[in-house]
């Protein structure tokens, strides 16, 4: 693969000067158009040691307008990063629409390092690379331009460059810990690099191999390639989306007679007041205890509450929170996104507020808005909400891999009971703020919501993050079902804290890297 | 002081129920008005152990609408927090306009703990309390409502409550490390608490002492007090601002004949091309070396560049960044604030992006916009930009206390030279993006800018963060002056890394708390 980057291309000083100013003018022009088109750009700078990745980035900082451009290196991980799913640190660096992020190594660094150090085998590396492909697809489908550079040096050239650098105090290379010195096993590194590039070189996010021996050739080629990639992206304002494919799970939207999961719920289930009081006390004690145990074991608890309007989400949530120490939980009601949030992938706002390990976080509505209200109201296009299912599954898998216990509740009420509650809200002073015209309008879309819920549950109820459907006509019954389910899941999860990381069961390369590297 | 909170007030179950619903309705109504008026609210919950602070917060979460309300506890500090000025963790939790933040202990916890543990004396405690008063003043002047609750229990009542809690697994108290048990030295704790309350009980941010023996009385009183405070704030849409006082530094704005610091610069200073090349190479090598040393010593470098339009900021910055490893520095060009940023104090956006220890961060324009462009263009009111001087000094002091080396450069050019550069920019393709109509308009306000700069330098050039005025008509001269100044400051600062924390020289209570507490 690297043969093409070993032909010894070079550019004379004179040629470099002649081409530089023109290139710079064009890059600035392209950058301005990017900003206007609100296209986010991710540039990944990777490659062999001593290829001059830092020099290239300095060059880009010189040629481009630094407004709206940020550079990120991923050295030692902070404990805040360690206590969240691994990709949290990357989501933190994603550019807003119209901005550019230059990432040293990006999400490629950890898997390469781990494989190089022998912490995982090729199969685990491949599993992680598959995740990367999914991640980059999600980014490009969301409009990002992803440009990946791999800088290559032949073994003799690298040796010579390192020798030169070792005489120079100004080199980062000298400061790296021994274990990160890829150059000492050039063959192994090349083997891994080739595997990584081959598996992640997709049309939507291609790798560009750059011969790094001649610095002028290297920098000019990077500039020209970037310019070309930006121009191509500008001509194609929307990412190519595959047509939605029909599959067995798909439901016709036109019918309201469709039988859904929700129709099979027995909403007549009830709980007597005395029994309710006894069970409430019992489960609240247990939830309190389990929340402390989770804190001590550094396991996060993530609860998602979705449900029909007036389905009883708030009441169920309060029965949990009133039992838990106020310093341990956080309720996140999902409101309209801010402009910073709108300028990113729709999952960005949820990544952004992920708690540190050991805390309970309760989402009052959640990322499922994408496949519920945004789908029904047409705020998201069909391709957008369709691809959201797998994006959500991937997101939740990462949460669970990180040790979170994730529970998702759908609270369902009958149309009659909802009507009764709406009327009650209008009549009770301190409940009035809960009812708006929108609630009445949503009621008319009941059949559409039912179909959306049905598909959501079918597509996102996974072994590691199952949905619990809650019969909500009787509030005591619903609250106890929520509490009991929560206690049961936590009990099981926390007892097995010594067990291997849950999730899909696939071992992936790249976890818990704490060493420093380029 | 606490006598008033020891009179044994109580509320019967019946009375509580009778008052609760009405209070709740009123609180919700007040909260809605707060949101509409875009007033941010900070509620601090502090007091003796076992007073039920967690219960009170749970109660507020039950009574209020949790949308737009967040609770924060300040337990163990993360390394990301440790590597930034101490108040970074508080700035992270400040509510946006129209939202509510409930803080356990808030900025009071660390100084109380430190004084209690004997890590500092009363004088150091007082110094920290003075900082708190400044901080809370800045918040209230920016529109925040700050409500501080102190929950009190007499020693026998506390002992009884702790005994009760110790029989109960559900108590946070049992999990606290021994050292944090304030209750074991009740007298000392009361002494410190009284000092803290006395010195920070200001009209703009008063303390409310709440007798915590009877839980119903406690919760009702908190609810009513909060309601009262919100209502009072709603009636007074703008914070009271003292009239701007004339002082020796003040300059008449009407005159353009005023002699300023800038007039005293010798703009004719020049550097020959050969000398420039030699010095540039020499200082760039040194900057590279010093940046690595700073990284290894975990000292941040913060550079602020302000200057006339076309004053050469960009060129000077590039002469630094091209010498430093791209992984070590970040350039932050200050653009228009986002809506999240506009919803906070104007310094919030700068706190937000503070780097972790050991990195170089370069501000291309900065928080000084408040006293420059915002002053001259009238974007900030006179009281706003006037109080910005001390807010900025306080901010910079915290940066320096945290170990940052802070340098501020003002790049000045003559009117003639500026004109020449404007014309050059219009004629050079890749420089055209740098020149806008606004630049031409700003030029007409030259005398006003000169006065603003003069006052800025006079009021914010401190021993720990001095301004360097740079004669910018000759670019080589200016660039070398910037590089030389940077090298000199870094050399001195890094040599003295073992010296005591720089800054105002005042020892303050509350540093480097890592222990857990309420």
UniProtKB/TrEMBL annotation, chains A, B:
<feature type="domain" description="Polyphosphate kinase-2-related">
    <location>
        <begin position="271"/>
        <end position="492"/>
    </location>
</feature>
<dbReference type="GO" id="GO:0043751">
    <property type="term" value="F:polyphosphate:AMP phosphotransferase activity"/>
</dbReference>
<feature type="domain" description="Polyphosphate kinase-2-related">
    <location>
        <begin position="11"/>
        <end position="235"/>
    </location>
</feature>
<dbReference type="GO" id="GO:0006797">
    <property type="term" value="P:polyphosphate metabolic process"/>
</dbReference>
<dbReference type="InterPro" id="IPR022489">
    <property type="entry name" value="PolyP_AMP_Tfrase"/>
</dbReference>
<dbReference type="InterPro" id="IPR027417">
    <property type="entry name" value="P-loop_NTPase"/>
</dbReference>
<dbReference type="Pfam" id="PF03976">
    <property type="entry name" value="PPK2"/>
</dbReference>
<protein>
    <submittedName>
        <fullName>Polyphosphate:AMP phosphotransferase</fullName>
    </submittedName>
</protein>
<dbReference type="InterPro" id="IPR022488">
    <property type="entry name" value="PPK2-related"/>
</dbReference>
